[in-house]
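for the writeup, i need someone to sanity check this before i put it in the appendix. the sequnce is what the collaborator sent (i think, or maybe the updated version? ugh). structure was predicted straight from it, no edits. if anything looks off just tell me and ill rerun, i have time this weekend
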Amino acid sequence: MSGPSAKSFWICCVVVSALALALVTPGAVAAKKQKPRSPEELTNFLLGPGHARWLVGAISRIASDQEIDRYLHLDSDDDASAFIEEFWAARRSSEIAWPAPQPQGIYETRAREADTLFTEGPLAGRRSDRGTIHILYGAPEKVSYEVAARPGLGPIEVWTYAKDAEKGLDGEQPKREYFFVQKGEHTVQTPTPPRQKLRPRSGGR
């Protein structure tokens, strides 16, 4: 094939390839962002108590989907321990000089704080919704409480972070506000409530 016909052929190939890339790329990107998984989906029942629920909480927000899937397929505690070492080694930074803590140190410190502050019954604080946010972004700038105007709704705990707050362990900047309500025996995160239907419990506007 030569001359104009050859040139037309290669132009067509380029156009088709570009269209195929345009169609495939969005799907590939979307596939990387799975919906949040439930604690049951994040539990590896093949592992012992010390490792089975390691993903539950902040770790599932730090880890990639591929890392989560790998961990869920492990079948021994030795393999789990090796995975965890590899997980944190991949997140160490040569730019962080001692005595500033590395990500693993930040996680472990905040996880202990969460266990002290947010444990509810058998649910360890580090596995709770409040513990997850605390571990990822640290303590909020302010904690306040509001009461819904509609009868029957309990108090809403509001965590407020600074507009210029640093990025968290998940690489994301925290939202301005997080909302938590009591549901059964546990305090859980809730979507942003309609603010016009709330009134401050104390000290608010």
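Confidence is low (pLDDT under 50) at residues 9-32, 196-205. Residues 110-205 form one domain.
thx in advance!!
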